[in-house]
Amino acid sequence: MSESSRRSRARLTASADDRQTADEAAAPRRRRRTLQPRAIATIALAWMLLWDRLSWGNLVNGLLVGLFVTLAFPLPSIEFHGRLRPHRVVWLIVLFLVDLVAASWQVLRLALGRRRPRNAVIEVQLRSRSDFYLTLTAELVALVPGSVVVDARRSTSVLYLHLLDIEREGAIEHQRRHVLDVEERVVRAFGSDDEIARLEQAKGGPS
User: Which residues pair with residue 124 across a beta bridge?
Assistant: First the structure.
């Protein structure tokens, strides 16, 4: 075998090894089936809210469903680097209740009125890249009548919402700002100082 042939074969072997190493690095880690108490408790709470009845039977069934889901479909753990701010959490809950009442009144007016509402699906780019804040923001927005989260993209932190009524001028932009406001409340309630600083930077400066 000539010298040039050996060099060419060595380059091909090295290239193949590099590709294999890159593929292994890019491949997702294998999800381990371990007990996830927080995920089980969250699923149990969602189960009880869906049944709209507090009982020991629903609690036990919710825990069993949560245990089955976490073991059968293990998900990667959500990283959380923030800290709890009780006064911000209280403010988050108060504003959520205000939004809930206001949106319920708007839906009631639409139901009793004769005007046919105009619907739309919008895209909202969140400023945080955390799965934790993405999930909380989506849940708080979805629980308010008149808006439904139809999709959430973890890779880009984008929410897609179905809106019930966009007849008013600027209704789409108003709803988009509302989602970003909810995200800001969540980050300020649970985020670290660094995460809050990045949020302020994304907004263009402190408010």
Answer: 159
**How buried is residue 147: exposed, middle or buried, by Cβ count under 10 Å (0-12/13-18/19+)?**
buried
Q: If you ran DSSP here, which 8-state letter would residue 127 be given?
A: S
Each residue's pLDDT expressed in tens, for the chain with a length of 207 residues: 555 555 545 454 444 444 444 443 333 444 556 778 888 888 888 888 888 778 898 899 999 999 998 888 876 666 677 788 999 999 999 999 999 999 889 888 888 877 777 888 999 999 988 888 998 999 999 888 888 899 999 889 999 999 887 777 788 898 999 999 999 999 999 998 898 999 888 877 544
Q: How far apart are CA 138 and CA 128, in angstroms?
A: 13
